Amino acid sequence: MIGDGRPIRRVERAAGTEVDPAAWWAKIPAMAAILEHGLNLPAGVTFLVGENGSGKSTLVEALAAAHGLNPEGGSRDARHSSRVTESPLGDLLKVVRTPGRQVNSYFLRAETMHGLYTYLENLPRAIDTDLHDRSHGEGFLELLDRKFRGYGFYLMDEPEAPLSFTSTLGLLVRLEALRDKGAQVVIATHSPLLTALPGATILELGPHGIRRATWDELEIVAHWRRFLDHPDAYLRALR
Q1: Which of 38, 51, 154, 237 makes a 20 to 30 Å CA pair with 11?
Q2: Segment 59-82, tens digit of pLDDT
Q3: Which CATH architecture has domain 8-238?
Q4: Sheet strands side by side (includes 8-13)
């Protein structure tokens, strides 16, 4: 069950690092808040939510880099890259870890899965050679089952992108099982379905910086409710 032995306790700006205040990523309120105050990471599952441009993906990529993971997805040992688009925030952060236990870690980033699959199948003595033969969603869930194992620190960026409604429910079940094994998972998402996971922490990023929120308070939940009740009204307003 969940305890306070979470793998990562906090991220904060490393001493002696310099920040260009004019850089695009440094002007995002949530990133500025982390550089100034740091961020405590709860045990269990944490969702990062917010509008496009609020810094969700920037933060989860920075957490991956600060922890030593490949920012395009994979483990600490993964060596693959397409085109570097990540901010340098991960190089400016230090991770405050819980000592005494070996930590499994992995990062799944929906938009770079093709490159990760190709890298994995070309490894010497490769075992993950079948992922390109599956649908995007099937491959994503299969790789999650193989790499997200028990106690550890795991990251995902918009995992709902390749998943159907039913598959997203399957991801919820997997997240609950991981949490029960002591895993710490941080997920950037737009999904009102994922963020409904009971007991999860929700961090809302926006002009205010970063704040905790409940599922009922989320704008994405309110928007989806209104849209599903009256889709014609939304479409009329867009014409």
Answers
A1: 51
A2: 999 999 999 898 887 877 666 666
A3: 3-Layer(aba) Sandwich (3.40)
A4: 39-40, 8-13, 93-97
